[in-house]
Design brief:
The chain is built from five helices and eleven strands. It is an alpha+beta fold and 261 residues long. The chain has a five-stranded antiparallel sheet. The chain has a single domain (3-258), classed as paralog of FGE (formylglycine-generating enzyme) (Alpha-Beta Complex), CATH 3.90.1580.
Length: 261
């Protein structure tokens, strides 16, 4: 189905909102001159051949509770002393993230609507984080980041930005400005699981079209940085791998919705 004929946003039966991400060709990774880059960010051209939808927000504690019947989050109401239902769910393993979107697919309302969910690939995630920018920049905000723009450790801003607050916890989703696709918190708040296995040399041999990561591995890709990260790790190109059985209070997810054929 042509992108022009697809709705720009979709809202499902839980009220989860998804933004259309068009098919595209873009430069994935970072140029040699990007400050504090890592060796596994070799810049290369990638084509995403099919449009898809990505959650406008990270999955919240309330949404996880509604689908899974429990809340695994360490940074919950009892811990922080305030309502956290609209904060991102965290402390979820990769397998639990998969179980969440599978359970979401199985809900009667979602099955009736023909909606299917999954985790984004690493390539899809990075293009989405960049917001379709015509020129390369580390963040959708530009070349610098302060913690008044995203939830991370504000003692360590990036690109010459001023120091800012350090919340030392997650924040309500959507508390900062969205990117051009209408996506919130692509930088900071919680790391987000992707579908790919992580490979530090994968960019040197990955296919140009729809790369899906190595066929095997020991860690799954997480992206975006988190509330306890330095600004460096919130860059669009920053890559990280975490063993899929691990759970941390800075690790959550964002769900992709498959576009109809």
């Amino acid at each position: 189905m042509a992108t022009a004929s697809l709705p720009k946003t979709v809202v499902n039966s839980l009220g989860m909102k998804f933004a259309l991400i068009p098919a595209c060709t873009f430069l994935m990774g970072s140029p040699q001159q990007e400050k504090q880059r890592s060796k596994d960010e070799e810049q290369h051209e990638v084509e995403i051949t099919k449009p898809f939808y990505l959650g406008v927000f990270e999955v919240t504690q309330k949404q996880w509770q509604e689908v899974m019947g429990s809340n695994p989050s360490a940074l919950n109401r009892d811990r922080v002393g305030s309502n956290t239902e609209d904060s991102p769910v965290e402390s979820v393993t990769w397998d639990e993230a998969v179980a969440f979107y599978e359970a979401l697919c199985s809900r009667p309302e979602e099955r009736a609507a023909g909606r299917k969910y999954r985790l984004p690939t690493e390539a899809e995630w990075e293009y989405s984080a960049r917001g379709g920018a015509a020129e390369h920049q580390p963040f959708h905000y530009g070349n610098s980041l302060t913690s008044t723009q995203a939830n991370f450790n504000g003692d360590y801003p990036y690109g010459g930005a001023a120091k800012g607050p350090y919340l030392e916890r997650t924040s309500k989703v959507g508390s900062y400005e969205p990117n051009a696709f209408g996506l919130y918190d692509m930088h900071g708040n919680v790391w987000e699981w992707c579908s790919d296995w992580y490979g530090n040399d994968y960019y040197l041999k990955s296919p140009r079209r729809d790369p899906a990561g190595p066929s095997v591995g020991s860690s799954r890709v997480v992206r975006g940085g988190s509330w306890d990260c330095f600004g460096q790790r919130c860059r669009s190109a920053w890559r990280n791998g975490i063993e899929p059985a691990n759970r941390y209070e800075y690790l959550g997810l964002r769900v992709a919705l498959v576009s109809p054929e």
